Amino acid sequence: MRFFIDTANLKDIEEAQNLGVLDGVTTNPSLMAKEGIVGEENILKHYVDICNIVDGDVSAEVISTDYTDMVSEGEILAALHPQIVVKLPMIADGVKACKYFSDKKIKTNVTLVFSVGQALLAAKAGATYVSPFLGRLDDISTDGLHLIEEIKQVYGNYGFETEILAASIRHTMHVVNCAKIGADVMTGPLSAIEGLLSHPLTASGLKKFLADYQKGDNQNIKV
Ligand code: E4P
Asked: What is the DSSP string of 159-200?
């Protein structure tokens, strides 16, 4: 399972990258705004800054909603850096634009996916990634994990190569459950990644190991 971080915060991206487990980044206009990144020039520069921190794919979302503008905007984004993946919303023009970019061998991420039918369309259009929004479905009392299971089944039935990018991950159990189901990638906040580290028995076990080391004949050995 690949780990993407879902943020535009450079410090969080660096922290996940330094942990050695980061495979990519996803962003969206809300995440950019949250970091105070506004205006086209600043946003484009920020994508390049992100690409320079992380080794893997970086999703950059278009804000246009009609085909022609999506294509021009996506081409500008894709030209920024080889790691850029053009992120397109699941609307008819987004599907058309996805097909355009996949024919040109430019990576795409179809976002705002909430149903198996939408995921099927994204795969038919040749999307590199499909992003079902787990947390937002859970927010409205609908089982987000079940959607990911269903997409996996449908993609498996036909051998679609589109990768399932479990998005809108909110916490560690989302990550663990997506891993059990076999989602190809998950994208979540730093807290969901770092939360996987914690276990009280690890903390108490390490404390005791270090205390016992100090009690033994090892005090003079430099470590
Ligand atoms: C996906 O790419 C989106 O950026 C993101 O996962 C949305 O998450 P949210 O529902 O927590 O805003």
From this structure: T---EEEEBS--SHHHHHHHHHHT-SEEEE-HHHHHGGG--H
Q: Is 177 in the pocket of ligand 1 (CB under 6 A)?
A: no
Q: What's the pLDDT tens digit per position in 146-180?
A: 999 999 999 999 999 999 999 999 999 999 999 99
Known active-site residue 107? no
Check: CB of residue 123 under 8 Å from CB of residue 155: yes
Report residue 129 as tokens: 């990634």
- Closest by alpha carbon to 87, among 117, 64, 54, 53? 64
Report CA-CA distances (Å) from 92 to 110, 134, 138: 11, 22, 25
Helix (H) or strand (E) holding 132: strand 129-132
pTM of the predicted structure, to 2 decimals: 0.94
User: Which is the closest atom of ligand 1 to the Cα of 135?
Assistant: 10
Interatomic CA distance for residues 102 and 163, integer angstroms: 14
Q: Which of 11, 87, 96, 124 is catalytic?
A: 87
Q: Are 98 and 119 in contact (CB under 8 A)?
A: no
Burial (CB count within 10 angstroms: exposed 0-12, middle 13-18, buried 19+), residue 150: middle
CB of residue 118 inside a 6 A radius of ligand 1: no
Query: Which residue numbers in the chain have pLDDT < 50?
Result: none
Between vectors from CA 183 to CA 17 and to CA 140, what angle results, nearest 5°? 100
Q: How far apart are CA 201 and CA 37, in angstroms?
A: 41
